[in-house]
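Checklist before submission:
- one chain only
- standard amino acids only
- sequence pasted in full

Submission:
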Amino acid sequence: MTAHNDTDRLHGTWALTSWERFRAGVFLEHPLGAQARGLITYEPSGFVQVQLIALGRTFDTFRNPRDAANAALRGEAPSPAAAAEVLHAYSSFAGYAGRFEVHEAEQLIRHHVWTGVDPRMVDGVQERLYRFVNDDTLILQIRPYQVEGVEHSDTLLWHRLSSIPPRVQGSEQPPQGKAA
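Returned file contents:
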């Protein structure tokens, strides 16, 4: 791959290999589980979109995924089972889209969020420190943040989608990238 700068190197779609959270520098958890799936796409037009899910998301209450939203728009209260499913759907998915900008000197990417599942992120900026391991492996790190006075940080490892074999239809295994 021939790229003139880091922005060019980012262009394309990347598959999540792992998402790890650390508390005071010690591994704490995989926020969406050890087998989370995700895609992040950086478009040459300057747009980014991110989607992350936990595996094992099943729903029994609704015959259509939009039933809960449609019921809420009509002012109908969901049943306890439906409310639990909606909560699970929300807590097992992270996603947003917007524009991005790269600051190579700082190795920093800013995602300017236009839309997302978490309304607190909309019209905000998500900053990610980045590092290329090679042309097909990218590490994004969320800047350290405080939770109850203790420093936390998140590290996401991505592999360029073109470097990953196509997923077998119905496979429960996440795609595996090339060894770094």
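Reviewer check: DSSP finds three helices and nine strands in the chain.
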